[in-house]
Amino acid sequence: MNRRRFLQVAAAGPITLPEFHPKSMLHVPEHPVARAKFPAIDTHTHLFGIGRKYAPDSPEARAELAQTAKYMDECNLETLLNLTGGNSQMLLAIRKTMSEFGAKFLTAAEPVWSRASEPGYAQWQVEELKKCKQQGAVALKILKTLGLYLRENGKLVAIDDPCFDPMWDAAGSLDLPVMIHTADPGAFFTPIDSFNERYEELQRHPNWSFYDHDFPPRSELHAARNRVAARHPKTTFVYLHVGNDAEDLAEVSAWLDRYANVHVDIAARLGELGRQPRAARKFFERYQDRILFATDASWDAGKELPQQDLKPGMYRCYFRFLETDDEYFDYAPSEVPPQGRWKIYGIALPDDILKKVYHNNAARLLQLRTI
């Protein structure tokens, strides 16, 4: 380095981590994928519920779905499943709006947690679930509320509390797969320090951390969820976010081997799967009949969560990961990686597996046509 250049660098001074946006010097083939190779069913979206400031049957909601339908046509997305559908009364309004778009949109129901401590809740929730089925619900969504937030007399209610057994059984008898979010990524249960690979994300969202509070260990939450699946073999469970343990595919594999009624989705875990492409490909090959295409897409994501922003750019990251063997590319359409500072690699799945992951596995669970 010549003296003039040295002085320029020295004058600039050190930069902070948020200012560090390195540009890769790697030259490798790139194969962007604009449309899914097969009609895709996204089994994990949030079109209603979370963060909404307007009613589901409002003009704003209809306009939002109309724009979403255009994106779907661009990307070869056949169906989106809304997981935040609420109770039977909310489902009435949601189905009214969705019906204007044919079969593009489906919705799940949610338990009414606010009544969980009331006498007779177990049977009431069973009857409520039957009403949700009548209103068009095709699945039951369990938020991480259960295990991390739902309390009775100040104490967290366990995921495998027997009071919920009638609900799990009812979901099975009604052919409603249980889409269950348990715990969160491993980094959210460790100190927010220089060793945490998701330090920047947790600095932006410190309330996402479950470390050093009265929350159960992550392993205990997973074990309680697994006990529920074991007790209810006639009910189908979909462990969302690769079971919230995408960092340990060997552990997830053990769950799938042990519980024949369990599936997983890949929502919002592209960053985890894509940095271990060889292990991920083996995982997809072995469990090709039990993995669902999913993104956790939401209209509320925006810049804060670009890996979940319901726009074509986000979907195309998934397509590229699943369909190509490209190397060292972004897992989200953003300048700074939102979850951790790494790139991902494609796994180039063969067509027979792609067809199952994109469409047929979900179609089978949701009783839709296969291709």
Folded structure, characterized:
This protein is an alpha/beta fold and 371 residues long. The protein has a single domain (27-366), classed as Metal-dependent hydrolases (TIM Barrel, Alpha-Beta Barrel), CATH 3.20.20. The chain contains 14 helices and eleven strands. A five-stranded parallel β-sheet has the order 4-7-8-9-10. The N and C termini lie far apart (60 Å). The model has no long low-confidence stretch (mean pLDDT 93).
List its traits.
five-stranded parallel β-sheet, four-stranded parallel β-sheet, 371 residues, alpha/beta, 14 helices, TIM Barrel
Overview in brief:
The chain has 371 residues and is an alpha/beta fold. The protein has helices spanning 3-12, 59-75, 88-98, 121-134, 145-148, 165-173, 199-204, 218-231, 240-244, 249-258, 270-273, 277-286, 312-323, 351-366; strands spanning 40-46, 77-82, 105-107, 140-142, 151-152, 155-156, 178-180, 237-239, 262-265, 291-292, 297-298. The chain has a single domain (27-366), classed as TIM Barrel, CATH 3.20.20.140.
Q: Tell me the series of helices and strands, N- to C-terminal.
A: HEHEHEHEHEEHEHHEHHEHHEEHH
When the domains are counted, the total is 1
The appropriate CATH architecture is Alpha-Beta Barrel
The largest β sheet comes out as: 5 strands, parallel
Taking Cα atoms only, what radius of gyration do you get, to the nearest Å? Answer: 21 Å
Mean pLDDT, nearest integer?
A: 93
Number of helices: 14
Strand content: 5-15%
Distance between the termini: 60 Å
Task: Provide the spatial order of strands within the biggest beta sheet.
Answer: 4-7-8-9-10
Strand elements, count: 11
What's the CATH topology name?
TIM Barrel
Low-confidence stretches: none
Structural class: alpha/beta
Name the CATH class.
Alpha Beta
Please identify which CATH superfamily we are dealing with.
Metal-dependent hydrolases
